[in-house]
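HUMAN: You are asked to prepare a plain-text protein record giving the amino acid sequence and the backbone structure tokens, both parts labelled.

ASSISTANT:
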Amino acid sequence: LHDTNTGVYATRRGKDAMGLPEEVDAEFEKAVSEIGESMTTPEQKLGWARVVQQERTQTQLEVRRFVDKEIQVYTANETQARVANGIASTIRMSTTPDSNGHVDPSRGLGELNQTIADFKAVAPKMGLTPAQIDEQERDIRTKAHEGTVRALLADNKPQAAKVYFEEVSKQIDPSRLDDIKGMLRTGSVREQAQDETEKILKDPKLTTLDEQREAAKQITDREVRDETISRLEHENVVKKQQEQQAREDSSIRVGNILDKSRNVKAIPDDVWDKMSMTQKAASRQYVKDLVETGQPTTDKAFMYSLGEMADKDPRKFGDLNLADVTVM
């Protein structure tokens, strides 16, 4: 029984402990019977019988306690896994659109109730008291409901999350309510800010970031206002990056055209029409240098001034459109 490597207490763990009492009883009776056959006198037989009875009772008690503990641990682990799967399934069913693309968070409640019922059926076998069972039920429902709210918010469905929360809030652990309400508030702010951002960006009268920021400042809700301004600034950065990339791509294209043709007339009309006067002049000078010297001329004084600007005023240099001081 007790060998740390081959004994049943070391090798028969979890569900494998089932049936062990009967097996140990059979082995015990076989062993004591073989030993008893060596007893010859009545005194020896009587003494052996007393030892056997005492050892039998102790061994049976010890083995049954071991089995009960192992089964309890096994049941707890299996139940924990089933509960976790039930919570995940509840969240999935509550947030997955049906065939018509409609999301009905209440669809997962049936799965959750079945998960709770299965848990309660085995909880007494795990040694849980009625109070502990109630506490575990509250924990399961809280995790399922909070997970559903989080998933709906992550899927940009703050209104659905709010309605769902209002329906199930009484089932949630009170200690989690404030955090969930905070998540809902954040989701609502983001949705409103997104709507406000789109409305401002679509307004043809608001063409600069300053004008857009001033419009956003008229929003009365401070959190929505701040989030809207942040989104507008982000959109402005992205827009500038895209414009800069477009200018660089156009500059490379024009440069390649001029290198091959050495003629500004080879630049397509749709590209030429979008070029500034400075860019057009730079293109003509580029071609002139190529024709006369075989390579463009570098204005060393101007290059030095750019280096000074980058060192002393990085922000101004960062805003500089270098396409206006090169070929494009």
In short: The chain is about 75% helix and 0% strand.
